[in-house]
């Protein structure tokens, strides 16, 4: 009975989300840093920075699935949550877009390294199937969304849990800041590749970050609230797996 309720709830959430994606207005700029937008040198640089995190993430995922195969469904949920949220795109700066990232939930559940793999797989599928981002810019997009965001989110979650012990507050803040930090890094990537003629990198960063802020701050708050709702849903319908996951993560930290 519990499994049927869990399945119905999941289908309901995914159904509504897919409906909104299918009926969302499209735009030529509705994507992550798009294909061919970065100079070749910077595209290669961000690939080189991202790959070590991806390799470490593969090792972390392999360990999780071997030691606790019961958590495969939770891994799938974290990946699906990231895919669905990051596909909800709002056009922003030319050549990029604002959207939720969905990586905070997986970072809280499994730590930042597994999200480097799950997030990059999400970005690959979006680039190939939805024209959301590109293959040459996948390294840059993956570093900002699948590496930097989860690291910040996980660090914030651990810090707030130690200092306040309030889990819902920690989850909300972690998800919101994982989202915001992704766009801080994206702004830095664009500023490095396209410094302003007057003011250089700093002026360019200020321009990109300020434009992103109009859409990204409300989105980050919304993502934090949604992540808390999903966490409450997991506690209601998948409490055994969630308890197993928290015990495992506690053992890893110790």
From TrEMBL:
Topological relation to the membrane, as annotated: Multi-pass membrane protein
Major subcellular site: membrane
Pathway it works in: Cofactor biosynthesis; adenosylcobalamin biosynthesis
Keywords: Cell membrane, Cobalamin biosynthesis, Cobalt, Cobalt transport, Ion transport, Membrane, Transmembrane, Transmembrane helix, Transport
Transmembrane segments: 40-61, 73-90, 110-131, 138-157, 169-196, 208-234
Signal peptide residues on this chain, from the entry's feature table: none
A Pfam short name: CbiM
Subcellular location(s) per record: Cell membrane
Record carries keyword Chloroplast: no
HAMAP family assigned: CbiM (MF_01462)
Assembly and binders: Forms an energy-coupling factor (ECF) transporter complex composed of an ATP-binding protein (A component, CbiO), a transmembrane protein (T component, CbiQ) and 2 possible substrate-capture proteins (S components, CbiM and CbiN) of unknown stoichimetry.
Functional summary from the UniProt entry: Part of the energy-coupling factor (ECF) transporter complex CbiMNOQ involved in cobalt import.
Family: Belongs to the CbiM family.
Protein name: Cobalt transport protein CbiM
Originating species: Paenibacillus allorhizosphaerae
Encoding gene (name): cbiM
